[in-house]
Amino acid sequence: MGTGMGAPTADTSTSPGFHELPGLMGLMTGDEKHGPAATSTLDALWVLYDRVLRASPATVADPERDRFLLSKGHGPMAYYAVLAAKGFFPVDWLPGFGAYNSPLGHHPDRVLVPGAEIGSGSLGHGLPLAVGTALGLRAQGRTGPAVWVLIGDAELDEGSNHEALAYAGATGLERLHTLVIDNSSATHGWRGGIASRFEAAGWSATTVDGRDHQALYEAFSAPHPGRPHGVVARVEPKDA
Amino acid sequence: MDTMRERFASVTSRLLDEDPRLAVVLAEIGKDGFTDAAQRHPERVVNVGIREQLLVGVGGGLALTGLRPIMHTFASFLVERPFEQVKLDFGHQGVGGVLVSAGGSYDWPSGGFTHMAPGDVGLLDTLDGWTVHVPGHPDEAEILLRQAAAAGDDKVYVRLSVQANEAPRPVDGARFRTLREGRQGVVVAVGPMLDPVLAATEGLDVTVLYATTVRPFDAETLRAATGAAGEADVVTVEPYHAGTSTRFVNEALLDRSHRVLGLGVSRQELRRYGQLDEHLAGHGLDPHSLRERITGFLGR
C-alpha cells in the first residue's frame, strides 16, 4: 500500500484535532460536486480514527490492525483530512487533490494512498470486500482486528450490499461493522428505516445523530456478541 | 476418466491441505465437490449462497488479508454477472486470485444460452494482467490449477470444460507447443479444440500449435512458427468466441504481411439444445467443417 514513501510518523503533540479538519479540507479546492457528501462523514470518521480504530501510520502493514474500508468513495475530502491529521500522509499533499500527479484522487486509490484499505468510487464494493476481509482474518486465526466499512444511504440501494448483508447476518460475522451515513440522499430508501434492514438480516443495529461524537462513540463501541454490527449515523439531508 | 471439474475439486481439496494461504469461495454451484474439504477447513471453504457479486467481492477481501482465493462457478456467473467485481475488487485493489469456471461455451447444450459464456475470455481481455489457461484435458487442468494456486499474487482465469482431448499433452503454463510442422500456414488449436484440429488438418502441410495458456499470448512461438512460411497465414481455433485472439495474432505479426482466420463460437445464439457434438457442428467446429474452412482459407 501507499506510494512507496515511508509513512510519516505521527507527532501526537502537534497533530491536528477535530477543529483543524475544516482547515485541512479547505486546502482541497475544486471538489464542489460532492461538497455535502464530504462533510456528512466527517464526525463519524473522526470518532472512529480518534477513539475506536486500532490503526495508525505505525500499523499500516500490521496484520493485527483494525481495517476501515471507505466504500462511499465520493467526496473523500473528509477522509483525506482525517488521514492527514492522523499522520498517514503529509498535510502538504492536500492542495494537490485531484491533480494529475497527486496520489489523492476524487475517489481514493488503495495503491496510492497510505492508510487507505481499499480503492473505492464505484458504489457497492466495500461491504462485500469487508465480508471477505473479515473471513480472511478469521481464517488466519486473527480474531482481534475489527473490520469497519462506511457506506452511504443511497449506496445501500446497490444489490451487492444485500448479498453481503444477508450472508454476514446468516453466518454471524462478529468482527464486521458497517457505518451507514444517512444524509437522506436515497430516492426510495427503506420502508421501516435502514437499521431495520440490518436487523432483519440478523445484525445488531442502532441509529444515532451523526454529529454527536459521544453518541457515535457509544454506538461504535456497543457490544454485539455473535452478530455483525450496523450503525446508522443520521446527518442533515444532502440538499439542505 | 474424470472430468476437468471433478479434477478441480479433488486437486484443490488437496491443495487446501498443503497450503494454508489458499481459500475456496463458492456460490452453491460445485459445493458437493468440497464437502470433505469444508469439514477439514471450515474457514477456508466459503459458500456464500447464490450471490455472485459477493462471491468475487469476498475473494477480493480475502486477498486483501493475504490469502489466495480460488473462486468457482459457471463461467456466466463468474465472469459476466460480477464483471465489475472482477475488474475492481482485484486489479484495482492491486491483489490477485484465481477464477475457475465450468460450463464454458456449450458444455450443457440442453441448458440453453443462459448457461453459455462464449464471451468470457473476450471480456477478460478488456482487463490488464490476467493469465488465461484453457486446458484440453483433466491432467492438463491439474497442472495448470496447481500453477495458478501457486502463482503468488497473479490474476489467473482457468476455463474448464466437459469437452476434452483424448490424450493429455505436456503443458508449462506459458508457451504454445508445436505438434506438427508445415509450410502452408499455422493453425493454433486452443485447449479442447486440439483433437478436432488434428483430425481436420490430417495430411495438410500446416504447422499445428497447441495453446493451453492463451494469455499472455505466446507471440514468440507464433512468430517462430510463421517464419517458416512465406506470407504468414494463421488460423486460430478457439472454444469461445471466434476471433478472440485475432488482435493478439495481429500484434505478434505487426511487422509482417499476414492473414488471420479466427474460428470459434458464433456470436449469434444457436437456440438449440441436444448434444455437445451437435453444437460443435452448429458453430462449424467439427473436424469436417474445420477442414473445409481451413483449406478454403489457405487455398486463397
Automatic annotation (TrEMBL), chain A:
The keyword Electron transport does not apply. Residues 34-221 form the Transketolase N-terminal domain. It comes from the Bacteria. Pfam families: Transketolase_N. Its cofactor is thiamine diphosphate. Transmembrane segments: none annotated. Keywords: Thiamine pyrophosphate. InterPro entries: THDP-binding (IPR029061), Transketolase_N (IPR005474). Belongs to the transketolase family. PANTHER family: TRANSKETOLASE N-TERMINAL SECTION-RELATED. This is Transketolase. It comes from Streptomyces halobius. The lineage of its organism: Bacteria, Bacillati, Actinomycetota, Actinomycetes, Kitasatosporales.
UniProtKB/TrEMBL annotation, chain B:
It holds the Pfam family Transket_pyr. It comes from the Bacteria. Residues 2-168 form the Transketolase-like pyrimidine-binding domain. InterPro entries: PDH/Transketolase (IPR051157), THDP-binding (IPR029061), Transketo_C/PFOR_II (IPR009014), Transketolase-like_Pyr-bd (IPR005475), Transketolase_C (IPR033248). SUPFAM superfamilies: Thiamin diphosphate-binding fold (THDP-binding), TK C-terminal domain-like. This is Transketolase. It comes from Streptomyces halobius.
